[in-house]
Structures are given as C-alpha cells and as structure tokens.
Amino acid sequence: MLPVNLDIDILRSFALGLELGSFAKAADRLGRSPSAISLQLKKLEEQVGETLLQKQGRALVLTEAGEILLSYAKRILELNDEARAAVRGVGKLEGWVKIGVPQDFAETWLPDLLGRFSKIHPKVRVEARVDRGAAMVQAIDKGELDVALTWGTLASPRAEIVARREIAWIGPDGFRHMPGEALAIVAFDPPCAFRKAAIDALDRGGIPWRHAFASPSLAGLWAAVTAGLGVTPRIVEGKPPQLAALDPKEAGLPDLGAIELALHVAEARLAPPAEELKRLVLEAVAMR
C-alpha cells in the first residue's frame, strides 16, 4: 500500500488558521473562502485518519493528534520554503543587506527568518535594525537601510502598504474600564501610530484617558502592563502569555480598527541580496 502524502497547501492553511486564531482569517489571508478551508481541514483529517480539532465552547481547539500534527506541519512548511528558495538560482548571492523592522516582529518571526536566510545564502551578510518607524524612514532616506517595515506610511513617498493588522487592547485577563475614570494607557511617546489610534478612539467615545507609562522598548511596555500600570494598544502578535487581548465590549473600551504595515526601500531596484530578503519578508508578513 502506497503511503499517503500530506498536502502542503492544506498544512499551510491548518498552521496559519491556528496561528491567527481563526480559520476565517486564514481564508482571507490566503485568498480562499471559509468553506474551502473547511473542506481542506476535513481532507487533512481523512489523510491522517484522526480528528484534529474539537469544539470547546464557541472555539475550536486542537486534539492530541492535532497538536502532534501542528508541530510536524511547521517543520514541513519550513523545509518546503527553504527548499524552494535554495533552488531558485540565487544560492550564490553575495554582499550585504541592511533591514529594519518594528520591535513586534524582532521578537517573533524575524530571528527565525534571518537564520533560514543565512543557511540558504551563507555569503550574504545581514545587518538588522530594530527601531521606531520615524528613525527607520530617516535611515532609508540616508541609504543606511535597504529595506524597512514600519507601522503606517509616516508620510514617506517610498512607502508601500503591504498588509494590515487589527489593533487590540492588551491587558490583564478580565480587565474592565470603570466608566468616568481616566483610562491608564501604556504606549510609546508620540509619534506612535498605536497611541494615536487609541487616543482618537477614546476621544470619539468620550472616554477620559491618561498616558500612564512610556518606554522606548516594547519589552518595557509589556512589563508595565503586566505590573498593572495600564493597558496598551498593540497587535496580538508577540503578546506575552500572561496578558490577554481584551474584548472591547466586555472591557468597556472602543474598537481600535486596523493599522497599516508599510514597506520602504532605499532604491527602486535593489541589489539581488536585498531583493531576495525583501521577498522573504513579504512572504512572512503575508502568512501572518
């Protein structure tokens, strides 16, 4: 009897849906309908001969078999992506690449991506800069960076919007704002797109606020929220496990909408190493 081959596309849908916390979001990200993703998951269960997901309240959670498969799926997808990049005819790239990213990504998927890039292109030297958007736009203009990602376009003529992310209120699980009290906000000092989105939403809702804590580092913001100094507007990606993405209605807070993620490049035509890293970064952004 021939072995059953797992479908890479289905594994990607499976892994992405669990990473995003919603298969509907995965369908939107992958350009498929929710019903198509549902059919893929049924096919995956048929291929492995096990139930992978089960209902827990309104949510879907992994079964024991699902947890095992997810671990393998991530490894299979990583190897698949590495193999594709390695045979694209760019294995002999040489030179330097300078990239800038927000702190949210530097603490999540960037280290893994740079590690895989170095394996595929060992002759390319990579310099990574983690900074606030305004500083990275200046570095792009000066030629100190080849590629940068920022939250918002920052009025840069080089900016290209490549994705959008939902902004969430992050705070202690069960947090609820008391009407009439000034909401304590933990955020970067301006200019900060997250801070502005929060203040605009609070002002529209007539909710008083105060900037309770500022820090130049994202780790500092997480520490302040963990210590109970306030709540912070941020994307869920990279959220510490001890904090929760708050439901706005239950927390008595306004919805914050979405924020744009923009790509900046120093030159219209990048050198091959920078172009290849840019491509991988955009793929990583699209899959999250």
Automatic annotation (TrEMBL):
Gene3D superfamilies, alphabetized: Periplasmic binding protein-like II, Winged helix-like DNA-binding domain superfamily/Winged helix DNA-binding domain
- Name the Pfam families on file: HTH_1, LysR_substrate
What Gene Ontology molecular-function terms does this entry list?
A: DNA binding; DNA-binding transcription factor activity
- Family annotation (InterPro entries): LTTR, LysR_HTH_N, LysR_subst-bd, WH-like_DNA-bd_sf, WH_DNA-bd_sf
The HTH lysR-type domain is annotated at 6-63
Q: What are the record keywords, sorted?
A: DNA-binding, Transcription, Transcription regulation
Q: Which family does it belong to?
A: Belongs to the LysR transcriptional regulatory family.
Q: What name is this protein filed under?
A: Transcriptional regulator LrhA
